[in-house]
Amino acid sequence: MAIAACILLLIGAITGNWLIATLITLGVYIAWLYHRLLKLERWIRKGSRISEAYDDHGFVDIIIRQLCAQKKIYNQRKRRTKRILRQLNQNIAALPDATVLLNRKFQIEWCNEPARYLLNLRSPQDLGYKINNLIRDPALLAYLRNPSDKDYIELDSPVDQDVSIQVKIVSIGEKQFLLIARNISDLKQLQESLKNFVANASHELKSPLTVISGHLEMLEAEDKLSAAGRRSLQTAQRQAERMKDLIKGLLLLSQVESYRLAPDEGDRISITELMLNVMAALEKHTDKDRVYLDCPHDLFLLGVNIELEGICINLVENGLKYSTPGTPIRVKWEENLRGEYVFSVQDQSPGIEPRDIPKLTKRYYRGAKSRAETAGSGLGLAIVQHAVTKHGATFQIESQLDKGSCFSVTFPSYRCLHGHKQATRVIKLADY
User: Model-level pTM greater than 0.85?
Assistant: First the structure.
């Protein structure tokens, strides 16, 4: 500005025309500023590299220093982000599970090394291809379309048909999915070995237990037994019956936990006939007339008949065993708004402690009240939980102290076969 003022005075003194002097001075000053701004624009256009920054006196130099400071911060953040991404890629690549990043069209954007020998996917050759075009399996395609319907699916590896893999899809944001595949062959072999062991052990226990029960029945007919001996005999008979129930429960448990049914797998089962068999199985209970059944006709389920019967029998017997004597047991089948069938057993028991509810479906777990007041193996609700999971259903327990409990099983709509529904009616077990 001082230089411009000196030039203005000099030109004005020489020409004597201060207007022309002012115009000339302003024109030169504007041209000089424009040149400096053009130089700044070229530097910014080239990426405003710090190594190419130049000195410029005045306000342009202030702008350059500010841009250089911001560039340094940006470069530091960029280096830190690259380092984090590199570490993340290394960590994911080191995972033993096959991991595949998919976009919203299920095209492969990235995959780690285990995806090569579990899913036969290679990077970068397969990047950009749809995964269902490379792994042609109807179950995988159905799972990709509705990943929220199931937690996971099990497939045979496309690399080796003898290898079983568990596939899980996780949504990350609105436009990407993470597919994780895990080798579960060893786990399945272990489950099969455990199932065979339980089946063989239970079978071997049946024969001696049958002999023991036979001898106990023979002793029961003896008239010379003392009162103490007869009490001991009755105790032995109760334990023998308990062992029979335990062996039966173990066999059923090993059967229901073997695998999960496919959505279209199972027999067409009439709920009416199912409940007739359930009610017939409850004939041994002396207080069976407390059971009231509310069931629509002409409804059908897709599943395994013996396991569905086991679910119903266990829950109804559970209600008879733990509810207050003389109170009704409400057994009900109904269809909810989502087209799902709900089987429920409502009793008027003293209720279940809230801390016990999450543990009831574990093997051999029995609450403090149950252990003190009733006999049992602790396998009933574990069998129910496994059978429910095998059919893709959900099991829910609701209870309030001194107000009763409700055990309900909700079967998914793909297992519910709709017929012509007739009016429901409440039926007592005695009517059967």
Answer: no
